[in-house]
Amino acid sequence: xxxxxxxxxxxxxxxxxxxxxxxxxxxxxxxxxxxxxxxxxxxxxxxxxxxxxxxxxxxxxxxxxxxxxxxxxxxxxxxxxxxxxxxxxxxxxxxxxxxxxxxxxxxxxxxxxxxxxxxxxxxxxxxxxxxxxxxxxxxxxxxxxxxxxxxxxxxxxxxxxxxxxxxxxxxxxxxxxxxxxxxxxxxxxxxxxxxxxxxxxxxxxxxxxxxxxxxxxxxxxxxxxxxxxxxxxxxxxxxxxxxxxxxxxxxxxxxxxxxxxxxxxxxxxxxxxxxxxxxxxxxxxxxxxxxxxxxxxxxxxxxxxxxxxxxxxxxxxxxxxxxxxxxxxxxxxxxxxxxxxxxxxxxxxxxxxxxxxxxxxxxxxxxxxxxxxxxxxxxxxxxxxxxxxxxxxxxxxxx
Length: 399
Description:
Blueprint: H1 2-32, H2 37-63, H3 75-91, H4 102-111, H5 115-133, H6 137-154, H7 164-183, H8 196-221, H9 225-231, H10 237-245, H11 247-267, H12 271-280, H13 292-301, H14 306-316, H15 325-346, H16 354-366, H17 378-390
């Protein structure tokens, strides 16, 4: 509850500043271009109204867990990107209309939030440029359509973050929109010279997207890759300590981590975080009891990534509600491994029906309120059960 209160205060603070600053930018831009009082008021009202919609959209998407690239709680990052884009929109009218790199702004606003919020934010910035330049609304629509296409194709990227095809599609649509709305409608005879500025625009957009997305990928998407490679190594010092203390606990963690990793990958979840949680969900015993206080202190000491800490807290802390899909994956993997090991301990030579064991585990979990009010769907739970059954050859390694 305290965490939610702090998050709400943080959201109000950053978005309040963002709202006020957007009005100042609209006011300053209107003065810069010598707009009269009526136009100045119109610009301020439209930008403030648009910014309000953007803030509402961001908040709604966060509540409904629909962000694309782990943007939950990153209010300052999004606010800074939005205000930068709005400020850039004030300066873009100094360039020819065919040279506005709005594709870049739309895509970046999308990856720093989600597709709906990015589209709303990009549209507000584009509206300011069109109003300040006094351009026709065909200009608005050409950049709106190409920006929307850019957001959609880049929202399909996964952890590998391969940008080649999305880049080609978004630049091709931008070129088509520029040709149809500006070049073909110009009063001059069609010539190669007319494609010079649009061509430069494409090159600039391509370079800016490659550079900015590379930075985004390194700083956000793969920020914890090296750390996960380190802590998910079975020979990591913490796991070696666990092995020295109890081989049973160690191998239990290894088996749980293997299954969690396999299931999370197949479901398209954060497999590295799920695997880490599976390895360390009992690590608190190194300090005595497996309490969240002990697990948390170990996480802090070894600088575990934030998402792993979140999943571990849900799993270990009895007062926490299990919400994330990764936590549920680890819960089922741990329970299935524990069930099989328990039966093998009773009779090491027993011929176990793994499919029946898995079915029993899933039915018992679904009959309780443990899985209520979380992010996972019933379809994903069924898919998870099917994948566990497909892994039945692995369970013989538990003997």
